[in-house]
Description:
CATH architecture of chain A: 2-Layer Sandwich
Helix content of chain C: 25-40%
Number of strands of chain A: 5
Largest sheet of chain C: 4 strands, mixed
Strand content of chain A: 25-35%
Bound molecules: adenosine-5'-diphosphate
CATH class of chain A: Alpha Beta
Oligomer: heterotetramer
Amino acid sequence: MSTLTAHFDLPLDGTAPAYARGAVVALLGAWGLRDRDWLDAAMTVLSELVSNAVRHGGGAVVVDVEAYGRQVILSVADGSSVVPRPRRADGTGGLGLTIINAYTTRWYVQSYEGGKRVRAEMPPCPGDGVTAGGTSRTEPA
Amino acid sequence: MSTLTAHFDLPLDGTAPAYARGAVVALLGAWGLRDRDWLDAAMTVLSELVSNAVRHGGGAVVVDVEAYGRQVILSVADGSSVVPRPRRADGTGGLGLTIINAYTTRWYVQSYEGGKRVRAEMPPCPGDGVTAGGTSRTEPA
Amino acid sequence: MNITAHRDGDGTARLTLDGDLDMATAGSLDGHVVRALTGERPRQLVIDAAGLSFCDSSGIHALVRARDTAHRHGASFVVSNTTGITRRTLEITGLLGTLTTVSPRVTG
Amino acid sequence: MNITAHRDGDGTARLTLDGDLDMATAGSLDGHVVRALTGERPRQLVIDAAGLSFCDSSGIHALVRARDTAHRHGASFVVSNTTGITRRTLEITGLLGTLTTVSPRVTG
Ligand SMILES: Nc1ncnc2c1ncn2[C@@H]1O[C@H](COP(=O)(O)OP(=O)(O)O)[C@@H](O)[C@H]1O
Ligand SMILES: Nc1ncnc2c1ncn2[C@@H]1O[C@H](COP(=O)(O)OP(=O)(O)O)[C@@H](O)[C@H]1O
């Protein structure tokens, strides 16, 4: 089973979620993880994590993606040590953690370089694609 | 001046250059580096480096992107310690290093974890966008 | 995200969404909603989500705000043509029915 | 990469490229070139690059091979409508003139 990782910085910016989705969907594609529905769910989770880091976290935002075979963990760190807590949804927010809950098998918070890191474990990606050895010839979108 | 970095694994696959371009163009966009002509040149250099790693390098392919303000270094490591050398172009190859030469300010080879890493320094990206502080509101493509 | 505004003959204001609705683009939807509801006041606001390729909680909150704004302006509201991940996420948050069933204009 | 093949009345085979030409897609161009030159033999092969959004050295080598294959089949060859980064990279490699000027069919 192959382990593949990615690690990158994101500036605190309203466009960070969209660019993060663009980068991570390409990375997961390179890793052979290309199931459309699974990618949609993973991108939704990532978008919630990055949006929360930009909105509530502050400081340096760092994204980590780890794939152990078809098992993927998405992590987003920020500079705040405040632990995310579900809150009642209203017109301005409160649905992010509900969505993360629904699309992940589990998620948890670690302390990370003075701030924290939220780690979200996705259910395994369906299908079988490239591993580190590389076989799939599917063309990128 | 802000320093932003990205680091990711790529499987040995013919689609690796395309996915790498997709990931890195999104990362550079997140970092506020969005000049179309400059991105086109950077993506060409990246594509040559990754294609060479897949074609000639083998082993684990690792991409690093570093931005010091608007100054960017693209690095691609592979498992071969053979140092790339320009060769006369023919119908099957030989233009990659010419292109890398033309679009970079300089490039060089380092030894890296039993293999090597080719580092390519791009000329500074024109314009002024987000830094780690974050201000630009340009929408991703 | 591209938003196109139409006005139908029957007093329906229609906003057609194309692209991703998230933190970066939700504000643009807010603006279009207000513009669609002012001036020639529509009886109904329809948000056509057929071209919506992505929508996270920031997007859903913008849709909820659109509904509230429509009702405040005396217009009925509905999100039409939700598909794929947008529909799944609306289901998960319990807002699919609320947003995709026509909610009547409040006459006061 | 999407490749569309047309056959004009005057004996021109035309391949229209749409997308990125690189390591992953060069082989598909090779295949289209051979198919375009066999069967009803064209007098000319035109590769229309207007929709070509990206082309690295793997792509340029595929264009050079297309030209060689056309000449071997007695067809003239040209790449038309190169723009942006493709044109810049062709210039850098010294192949812009070679590929974008009609190279006559070799009559043997
Ligand atoms: N990265 C974070 N840092 C600090 N607090 C957070 C973070 N993410 C979430 N929270 C807290 O948890 C609450 C619930 O988060 P969420 O369900 O995503 O809703 P929203 O972000 O829309 O308010 C937030 O309102 C916030 O107080
Ligand atoms: N990552 C690499 N590892 C080992 N050798 C390399 C690598 N990159 C390039 N080379 C060598 O340098 C030569 C020239 O590279 P290049 O100009 O890119 O042409 P091409 O890859 O098309 O042959 C290659 O043919 C190869 O022998």
